[in-house]
Structures are given as C-alpha cells and as structure tokens.
From TrEMBL:
Keyword Phosphoprotein part of the UniProt annotation: no
Stretches assigned to coiled coil: none
Keyword annotations from UniProtKB, A to Z: Membrane, Transmembrane, Transmembrane helix
Domain Heparan-alpha-glucosaminide N-acetyltransferase catalytic: 25-209
Name of the molecule in the record: Heparan-alpha-glucosaminide N-acetyltransferase catalytic domain-containing protein
InterPro entries according to UniProt: HGSNAT_cat
Membrane-traversing stretches: 28-48, 68-89, 101-117, 123-140, 147-172, 178-202, 214-234, 267-289, 310-329, 341-364
Keyword Membrane: yes
Pfam families cross-referenced by the UniProt entry: HGSNAT_cat (PF07786)
Organism annotation: Microbacterium endophyticum
Amino acid sequence: MAASPAVVDGSAAARAWRRLGGAKRLGGIDLARGLALIGMFAAHLLTIDAFDAAEPETWLDVVNGRSAILFATLAGVSIALVTGGATPVVGLARKIARQRLGVRAAFLWVLGVILIFTGVPIYVILPAYAVLFCLAMPLLGVRPRALLAIAAILTVTMPFLVAAIEALFGWGGATDSAIGLLIGWAYPFPVWSIFLITGLALGRLDLSRTRVQVGALLIGSLAAVVGYSLAAVYPAGPVTYDMNGAPTDAGAWFLASVWTADAHSGGILEVIASGGVAVAAIGACILICRTALRWVFLPLRAAGTMPLTAYSLQVVVWAVWAQIALGATTDLWGFRGLEPFWPLTIAVLLACMLWALVVGRGPLENLSNMLSRRLAPGPKVSRLE
C-alpha cells in the first residue's frame, strides 16, 4: 500500500526538502552564503599569490578579504529577512527580535572563543559577528534609505578611526591582542558594520523582485569598478618601515591605511569596491537561482543554509587533522602542505547537503534558534526562524 500524502508530507525529510527548495525561500541567498564559505575555506587553506591580471594562477586571490565581506553583508541580509524583510516587525515583535538577536550574538561569541582556543591559525570571524549583531539591534526599524545613508557616512569616517586605533596599538598590534581576538578586531567592527548595515538595507528591499535583484547586481558592480579604478589611478604613496616594523613616516602610513582597496585593509576604497562585489554577488546569486542552475549549485546552497555549522566544522576538522598529522594545530604552512582544501571542502559540502536533505536546519543553527526562543520567549517573529 502506498504511503498516504499526509505521512509523506509530514516526514522529516519532506520538511527538510521544503525548507531547502521551497518556492518561498530565496535560494540565491543560500548560494551566496555557500560561495562566501568556500571562498573563506580557500583563503584559509590555500597559499595564494598576489593578484596579477596577467597571471591566471593568481586570480584566486579574489577570495582574500572579499569572501569575509560577502559573509558580513549576508549577515545583514539575514537579520533583515528574519525580522520582517521589506516589512520590518513592530511593537512587541520587534522587541522580541532584538532580544533574540542579542542571544544569538552571545552564542556566536562563546562559539567563536571556543574555536579560537583550538589554536587553528586563522582569525575567527564569529566574535566580530557577535559585535555586529549587537550593533544591528537598534537598527531593526530603520528604513533602507536611512540605512544606506548611515553606511555612506560610516564609509568616509570609520576607516580613519580604525587607522587611528591601529596606530595607538602599535601599527596593527590591536589585531593580535587578547582584547582584539575577543572582539574580532581582524574584522574591525567600526568598518565592518558598514557591510552589515548595507546588507540590512538590501534585505529591507523586496529581494524577490527582479528589479531589486538586477539593481543589486548593477549598482554593486559599478561600486566595485569605481573603487578599484580609484585605487589604480590615484594610489596612496609607498610606506617604508624601520627594523622594528614601525612606519618611518606616520602620515604616509595613515594615508595608505585609509586610501586603499587592499584586502583586509579597512580602507575607504576597499569598503566601496569589495562591498560592491558583495552586493553584486548577492544580486547575481539570486538571479542564478531563478533558473535551473539552482539544482547544479545544490551542495553550495545546502551549506549556505547552515553557514555557522559549516564554518565551525571546518575549524574543528582542521584542528583534529593537524593535531594527528603534525602534532600541533598552530602550524599554518605545515597544514597547507598537506593539501587539505579539496578533501575538507568536499567533505563539508557533502555533510551539509546530506544533513539539509534529511534533517533540515543545521545543528548549530538549530541550537542558536532554540536558545534564542527559550531565553527570549514569545511567538515566532518570522517564518525563517
């Protein structure tokens, strides 16, 4: 006897499939998250030479910095989507949303610290995420135009603040200080809040509309072209350093830190250019997932539904593998010498796809959601919770 539709439709696998491939889900956001994850894996696990347009083997350098920026921009989009999308929640629902966002921030911070203690030699992004989530809490009711205005103002001011802080800490020492690690200063929140706010503005638009998707692709591409062109045509002067690693000309160092599109620089041009790449990538991914190609990218989309799980799994597997093979988790070059990128990436993608198809929401995403609902009780704020 054939199983009844009610039984089939009510199965865990059926619910998982609807969650992954449902008509109401913006699969392009999942694809963009998946691409950001793989880009970060590549930046962590591969030795990549500086970009040179004449040497194709260096083109993979595009993942450096830009993958993490895409990740941060998508965090803003996700926050917008789970708090009402184009129609932000109001009243009690907004209060509950803020509380749950705070719980998620605390969860991310604790998890990030745990991953830092594995000793894996990367700058774990989760503590920075936690800070950014807190900064997003008072912005849940702000409309897209105002959010973009805030992002624009921060773009021309925050790089100066970050450069000043870096100088006070000894020309970049803030990144490796204990406090710097605990707040994710490798992704300094005064600048990285710009990407989150831009993503929040994008998520407050109706991303299901073709006009918005194409607009994101075109405007993001234009910003990228402008930012990188300005960096090429009007570069900052060179900076020289003394034997102690301090710049010989503090003024030249400061200008070079602010007026640059270099990856992880936090410069104004990086914000414009790499932020533009992130926005364009989001628009392109949503457009791609309106076609049959969405099935080709199913493994990436599946990983994109559980980015926290996938990111953390990468770090944990890295730590275990390095400890067994090298006797330590801290040897970056030794671990890269094991050529871990493809086996680790494929394993994570397959694990995420199987979990997404059979179970549904990722385990860490589910834990975060459960904690936020338990510690900030109330009705669902969004169907995406």
